[in-house]
């Protein structure tokens, strides 16, 4: 047998062996390597393999902040990036909604593209529905989000101030990244309020510095409520500095 045939045979055997390992590696072992990404992952049930699997009822956390996940499923797709790493199709569901995305490796970072998400968020003091679309993002495992390009639509946004519910309406936002955080710059779409400023999101924490122009709103209770939430900077205009957990 010629050297060329031997080389081809060995290459074929190694390729088949690699494929067998990918198909047979238990998904539980994959998630147990979560610490490599500086994340803490804990799921009640994990099934499948490295190639295709699903984990349910768990928490993904970093630096003491965790996000509850109802279902996380993945599948290696056929495409390969310039970094010679496979694309991973990801689908995540939790109590708020779902998101799908394609992941790939960029050096020591994770690349994200074609992310689509729909969520309904309800908290004691606020609620909203949101649709997220991200064309491209890069997440460094040490420092957080490095780059981000996308948009978000927030609808039916409402705040509760005591017994008063303030219906803010709908807003669009341009997504970017700075210092490892996601930055959202809101633009009014359909609302009697004009909102400017920005919000920063990091893990499950948020911080917003906003200016709300409520001059078109005639309800004195709402003006009093906005004044309690922040400070009045002019007739019907309020500066709000908000922060907390999502």
UniProtKB/TrEMBL annotation:
One of its GO terms (biological process) is protein secretion by the type II secretion system. GO terms for cellular component: plasma membrane; type II protein secretion system complex. PROSITE patterns: PROKAR_LIPOPROTEIN (PS51257). Its main location: membrane. Keywords: Cell inner membrane, Cell membrane, Membrane, Protein transport, Transmembrane, Transport. It is found in: Cell inner membrane. Belongs to the GSP N family. This is Type II secretion system protein N. It comes from Umboniibacter marinipuniceus. The lineage of its organism: Bacteria, Pseudomonadati, Pseudomonadota, Gammaproteobacteria, Cellvibrionales.
């Amino acid at each position: 047998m010629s050297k060329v045939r031997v080389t081809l045979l060995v290459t074929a055997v190694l390729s088949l062996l690699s494929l067998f390992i990918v198909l047979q590696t238990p998904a539980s072992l994959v998630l147990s390597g979560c610490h490599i990404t500086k994340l803490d992952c804990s799921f009640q049930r994990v099934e499948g393999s490295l190639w295709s699997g699903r984990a349910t009822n768990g928490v993904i956390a970093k630096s003491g902040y965790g996000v509850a996940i109802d279902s996380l499923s993945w599948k290696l797709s056929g495409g390969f990036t310039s970094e010679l790493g496979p694309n991973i199709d990801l689908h995540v569901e939790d109590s708020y909604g779902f998101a799908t995305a394609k992941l790939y490796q960029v050096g020591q970072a994770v690349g994200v593209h074609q992310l689509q998400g729909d969520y309904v968020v309800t908290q004691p003091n606020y609620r909203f529905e949101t649709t997220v679309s991200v064309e491209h993002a890069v997440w460094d495992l040490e420092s957080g989000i490095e780059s981000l390009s996308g948009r978000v639509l927030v609808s039916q946004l409402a705040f509760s101030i005591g017994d008063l519910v303030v219906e803010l309406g709908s807003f669009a936002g341009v997504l970017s990244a700075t210092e490892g955080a996601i930055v959202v710059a809101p633009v009014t779409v359909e609302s009697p309020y004009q909102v400017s400023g920005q919000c920063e999101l990091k893990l499950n924490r948020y911080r917003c510095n906003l200016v709300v122009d409520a001059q078109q709103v005639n309800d004195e209770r709402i003006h009093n409520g906005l004044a309690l939430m922040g400070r009045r900077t002019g007739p019907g205009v309020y500066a709000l500095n908000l922060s907390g957990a999502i």
